[in-house]
Amino acid sequence: MKHLDTPWRRTALCLLGLLFGTLATMLLGSAPAQATDNGAWSVAPTPPDTVNPAPRNYFVLEGEPGTKIKDKVRLQNWTKDPITFKLFGADGFNTEQDGFFSLKGYDEKMTDLGRWVTPMTSQVTVYGRTQVDIPVTVKIPRNASPGDHVGGVVAMNVAVESTEKDANGIEIGIQRAVGARMYVRVAGPTTPAVEVADVTLQHDRGMLPWTGSGRGTVDYTVKNTGNVRLSPDAVVTLTSLTGEIATFEGKALTDLLPGETARVRQQVDSIPSFGKVTTTVTVTTKDGPTDEAATSTWLVPWPALLVLLALIAVAIWLVRRYRGTGGRRVATAEEAPQLTVSGRS
Prior knowledge:
Layout: E1 2-3, H1 7-28, E2 36-37, E3 41-45, E4 59-63, E5 68-77, E6 83-94, E7 101-103, H2 113-116, E8 117-119, E9 123-126, E10 131-139, E11 147-157, E12 162-165, E13 171-174, E14 177-186, E15 194-205, E16 212-224, E17 233-240, E18 243-249, E19 261-268, E20 275-284, E21 290-299, H3 302-324
Parallel strand pairs: 1-13, 4-14
Antiparallel strand pairs: 2-3, 3-5, 5-10, 6-7, 6-9, 6-11, 8-10, 11-14, 12-13, 15-16, 16-19, 17-18, 17-20, 20-21
C-alpha cells in the first residue's frame, strides 16, 4: 500500500530541506551572507540591483499595517537536470525541544506571515545550472499586531525523490524543500519580554551517600512573551544550605519567536550526596528583559537513612531496658531458685 500525499510527509520533507537553512544561519554568524541550499538547489533573497550587490542570506523587511512590500526570491538549480518547484510562504516556529527554528510544511495551515507572502507563481521549472528570480509580495494586514513576524519563502521539489515506511508499514513519499527566512517588523510599539518556568532537577545520586556520579540534568521552559524575536541566554546555578555549589552556562536559544516556547535541558554535575539543593535558572537577553525561576530538591539516601534509624531505635531500646533494671542483671525463669513451702497436717 502506497500513501504519497499526507500532511506528515509534506511537513517532514519540508523540514528536511529547511534544516539546511537553520544550520546555515546559525553557523554563518557574521560571515558573508550566502544562499540557503541543500547541495542541489538554493533559495535566497535576490541581491539588490546595484553595481556590486551584496548577497542577502534572509529577508529583513518592515512596513505599516495595511501596506504591501515587494521583493524577489532567487532559485538556483545546481544540478544538470531541470527541477520543478512549488513555491509558498510559510510560518516560522520554534521546536518544542531546544527551540530550533523551523518552518511549516506545505499542507499545514498558515496563520501569520505564511498567509501574507505570495510568490508571483506557485510553481516554476528551473533548468539545470541556471537561476531565476521570482517576484514576491508581502501584504501586511490592517489588523496586524506590531512587532516581529517571522516565516520564510519555501521552494519544494514537486518530485518524490524516495520513499520510506512508517511504523504501520505504509510507504511515505519523500520530498525535499529549502526555505529562505523572512523577518517582517510591523510598525508600532515593541515590548521585548521573556519568561522562564517549570524548572526541574534530575540527578544520578545512588541509594547510598557514596554511590552515584553526582551528575544530572536541569530542565526548564523559556517563553518569549513579548512581540519581538529574542536570543536569550541562561545561567543555571546549584546552591546548597551552605552556599553555591556550581554555575553552568545554559544553552543559548537563537531566534525565539514571539509567543513561542522552548523546553531546554542542561547537563550539570557536582550534585551533593544529601541535603537541600536549590536550582535557579536566570534568563537574560540583549534587549534587556530578564527572568528567574527556581526549584528546591531534597536529596535523601533513604536506604542509608532507614538503616541509621533502625540502629538508633535498637540503641534506644537497649538503653531503656538496661535502665529499667537499675543496671542489675535479672535472672531468667530457669535460673531463679525454686521455693518449697511445707505445712502441718
